[in-house]
Amino acid sequence: ETHEIEVTTPGASDELEGPVMFKAYRGFDVICEQQDPKTNKIKQIEGRLVERNNEFTIVNIKGRMKKMKNSTVLSVLLPK
Hints:
Layout: H1 18-24, E1 29-35, E2 42-52, E3 56-61, E4 64-69, E5 73-77
Antiparallel strand pairs: 1-2, 1-5, 2-3, 3-4
């Protein structure tokens, strides 16, 4: 009777972190979780990552640019 052991790694994280990852994934589909400062509700925004700088995360949603303050963006994820 033989047994087989397979060792795998979890792979890359789904969450984008740091300037290098944001630059590498420009143009990719992303899901941004943003906390609305007025209502405190968390919204999921889907679109293509255009840019992230020190102040803003910019996502293209069906041709319209959505500019979000980084202080309101909880996470930027790659869709599964």
